[in-house]
Amino acid sequence: MMNFSVKQLLECEFSHQDFPLTTEQIESYIEKSMAVNLVWSMSGDGKWKSRKEIRDFVRRSSTFPMLLDDDHPIIDFEVTGHHGFI
């Protein structure tokens, strides 16, 4: 999953050469991608309770701001280079 995330980041960078990503945007993208990928890899096909427990653990363990809305779990989001979570 991280290979795909890195490929997406590179595609974004190459397709927007007039507006290159800043170091902060790249770091933010990688952090958020890792969080989404971690939740997916550990609980993607699991029951809701297990996914919620993993999601809550990742939120508590992260050092960057994450979505805190219980109605929209991390696993339902996609990370983009310029916009963060969508």
Order of helices and strands: HHHEE
How do the strands of the widest beta sheet line up side by side? 1-2
Total number of beta strands: 2
Main sheet properties:
2 strands, antiparallel
> In percent, how helical is the residue content?
55-70%
> With helices defined by DSSP (H or I, 4 residues minimum), what is the helix count?
3
Shape descriptor: elongated
Kindly name the structural category. mainly alpha
User: Alpha-carbon distance between the termini?
Assistant: 17 Å
From the alpha carbons, calculate the radius of gyration and give it in angstroms: 14 Å
Query: Which strand-content bin applies to the residues?
Result: under 5%
Q: Low-confidence stretches at least 5 residues in length (pLDDT < 50)?
A: none
Mean pLDDT across every amino acid position: 76
